[in-house]
Structure formats: C-alpha cells, structure tokens
Amino acid sequence: MPEAGPAQPRAQLTLPVSVIIPTFNRADTLGRALASIRSQEEFAPAEIIVVDDHSDDDSGDIARHHGARVIRHERNRGAAAARNTGVEAATQPWLAMLDSDDEWLSNHLAVLWKLRGGHVLVAGASLACYDDDGQPPAYTGTIRPRAHTLRSPAALIPLNPVSASAVLVSRDAVLAAGGYNTELGYAEDWDLWLRVLERGSGVMTPSVVCLYHVHAGSKSLHSDGPPQTHDRIVRSCIGRSWWSTRLLDRWCGLRIWAALETAVSQGRHRQAAVLAARLVARPQRLWAVVVRRVQFALWMRRSRRLAVHDRRVSAALRALAAADGERR
C-alpha cells in the first residue's frame, strides 16, 4: 500500500472582506502580519489593502510581495488617516482591521464571520505579547464565557476590551460614523467603535483571534497621551442619546483610582486621602474600581489557561518564541 502523502490544504471560501493594514516603517513585522492572513484555515478575504503612510523602508515592497494592494501616502499623515484611506479604497462590504505589528490566529476570519449576522461590529479577544521576557502574555476581551450582544456604545465604557486587530466591521457603518477621527493621537479605534455602535448592534466573543504585540514603539505605552485622549473621547459622548451620569461616574472612578495609586506610591498621603474620599462619595465610582479589579484578575487567569490549553494560542506563542530565539 503506498504511503499517504502530505495533507492537502483545505479549500478556502473567499469572503466579501477587505483587510486594511496601515503601516509606517514596519518592514520588520509587516511580513508576519501578512503571512497570518494567508494562514487562515477556512476563509480568505477578497482583498488586502496596505496603506503605506510614507515609509522610508521596504514596507511597500514587502506588501506587494505578499500580494497586497498598496496605497502610498505622499506624506506621513498618521494611523487614523491611513485607516481612512483604506476604508475609502475598500471594495467589500466588510472590513477586517490588522495593525502591521500584530498577527491573526488561523481561525480569525472563521470565528468572526460566523457571528456577524444582524450586527455592524464583531469583536474577538486578543492576547498581548510583550517584548519584555518577564511579562507573560495577557488576555484582553470579554470576561463572559460565551459570545454576547453589544446593544449600545455604553457596553464599551468605562473600558474598551476590543483590540484594533480583532474586529470585523461593516464598511457602511464606518462611513456613516464618519470614519476614524484623525485629530486623536491615540485610541482612535475605540472612538470609532462607539460611533459605529450608535448605528447598530455588535457582538463580542471570548475566542482569541489575534496576537497584539507590545513593544517599545507601541503607542499604548506612552505615559501621557492615552489617558488624556481617553478623557476627551469619553467627554465627547456626554449628551448622546445613550449616555448617562452613571457612565461618567464609572469613568471618573477609574481615573480617581489611578491618581490615588500614584499618590500612594509617591508618598503623598494627604492627596491620597482626598482622592479616596472622592472615590467613595459616589457608589458608581467605587463600583467601577471593583469591577475593574475583578476583570483584571479574570483576564490574568484566562491568560494563563490559554497559554497552556488553547491549541492555536499555544502554537502561536511557541512559534513566536522560536522566531525571537532565531533573531537573537
């Protein structure tokens, strides 16, 4: 009897999805991001658009080598503008976002596509992977055990559990919402999801669909910009039909808690006492802190379990560790 040959790859169904990847001088990671799209097990997107935000490295050539359609900005305009360029150029009704330093797991499109019915936004969970060897991978996403519906933008306040690279979104809804806000230096994806959810419901699943890479160049590590921008985004929601004073109290609770932790760590005990009094003055503020602490603990527990028991996650982490070892 002849020996069995190598397993044949499963036939992929092409989905009406445009993948949008903004990039600026990411020649070292863009190939990995693009390869993760090609590694999808069940579905393939109809097109891949890489918006080269005036890189001076080989990002554009790498994108073309991987079969992507490349649009180059004549000057650097920022990630939000690059994403808007991709949205405008997309030919498909659904958009899948991927940052050029992140990567999808092989089930990304399959998980999100099957949940889209009747919704304008589908969000999966992500696993943050840190350059620092001492920092373990960290789960970010819903703490619920199963997929659930997001019926209002309020579901994403006071915290945004949606990673930019873990989303499938209706192009029509993005255009109706006005696209990404190019005046924001940070969290422009969160700002957009809030406006998109004003135009329809969303769904969120605890299934991990991407790896979010955290490194020295990550915007989220900047100390001052993100909190200030987050305040701006939250306050821009005041007065909308879905807004409530309860949401503002919850947001203020987390901001007060952060300031309280800083005051305690720096030995400013009088200021810490004032902040503590402000925190307990309104129940919703304290409730937000309790929920956040519980959420963080559940995220950490889920992170440890995923790294060991989830086949795709553990395989991706092993591949990442092997790649890091080769580079060193």
State the gist of this model.
It is built from eleven helices and ten strands. It is of the alpha/beta class and 328 residues long.
Structure notes:
By secondary structure, the chain is an alpha/beta fold. The chain folds into 2 domains: 16-224, Spore Coat Polysaccharide Biosynthesis Protein SpsA, Chain A, CATH 3.90.550.10; 227-303. It is 42% helix and 20% strand. It contains 11 helices and 10 strands. The chain has helices at 30-38, 59-65, 79-89, 108-113, 171-176, 188-196, 225-236, 245-265, 269-280, 283-309, 311-327, and strands at 13-23, 43-52, 69-72, 94-97, 103-104, 121-130, 138-140, 148-150, 167-170, 202-214. Strands 1, 2, 3, 4, 5, 6, 7, 8, 9 and 10 form a 10-stranded mixed β-sheet that branches. α8 runs antiparallel to α9. The longest helix is centred in the last third of the chain and has 27 residues, at 283-309. Mean pLDDT is 91; it is low at 1-9.
Task: Set out the fold topology.
Layout: E1 13-23, H1 30-38, E2 43-52, H2 59-65, E3 69-72, H3 79-89, E4 94-97, E5 103-104, H4 108-113, E6 121-130, E7 138-140, E8 148-150, E9 167-170, H5 171-176, H6 188-196, E10 202-214, H7 225-236, H8 245-265, H9 269-280, H10 283-309, H11 311-327
Parallel strand pairs: 1-2, 1-4, 2-3, 6-10
Antiparallel strand pairs: 4-9, 5-10, 6-7, 6-9, 8-10
